[in-house]
Amino acid sequence: MELIEKYFGAELTPEQRERFARLYDLYAEWNAKINVVSRKDFESLYLKHVLHSLAIACVCRFDAGARICDVGTGGGFPAVPLAILFPEARFTAVDSIGKKITVVRGVVSALGLQNLEAVNGRVEALEGRFDYVVSRAVTDMAELMGWVWNKIERGQRGTLPNGLLVLKGGELAEELARAGRRFTVYDIARFFDEPFFETKKIVYLAK
């Protein structure tokens, strides 16, 4: 929780602070039943999952009413931390694995998060359109674009034009070249000084 205070403390309301503080115990409880966070990583939940998710907020702040879809949300990352930080935006967290969505729904219910809906299914079958699609290392960028590009509406409902914001790691040049677009790549180490983020990036593509 100290990490969240370090980078975002100045802007948090008491309710947001309480919700972030509760994440550890909530995920510990759920993870004992359904393993959605690697057991070896669990002690680093705030570093490797919560703060990593919030890196997106260092690149794009979402407007009130903005619609954001998290594809392949797993246990709710990045959707849950972002939904806490942006209570006026609307989030849809999608995963094809039902037990992961069970965890997300349990966490969302316990926190009383009214702005996040968890959906068990494939994003291609999802109704509606979104201002932004976010994701964390779910698949190759070209494949991800094939799933979601036609679901993103043009416009600007945040500090960046509507588009795709993807958390990635490692060497990306070949993967991005295959996708055939001009992406903007942000080094997360510009925002957070923990060594974990040295190879972590956010890949952005405007619609």
TrEMBL record:
S-adenosyl-L-methionine binds at G72, F77, V123, E124, R136. It is found in: Cytoplasm. Keywords: Cytoplasm, Methyltransferase, rRNA processing, S-adenosyl-L-methionine, Transferase. SUPFAM superfamilies: S-adenosyl-L-methionine-dependent methyltransferases (SSF53335). The keyword Cytoplasm applies. It is an enzyme of class 2 (transferase). GO terms for cellular component: cytosol. One of its GO terms (molecular function) is rRNA (guanine-N7-)-methyltransferase activity. Its main location: cytoplasm. Its EC number is 2.1.1.-. Specifically methylates the N7 position of a guanine in 16S rRNA. This is Ribosomal RNA small subunit methyltransferase G. It comes from Candidatus Tidjanibacter faecipullorum.
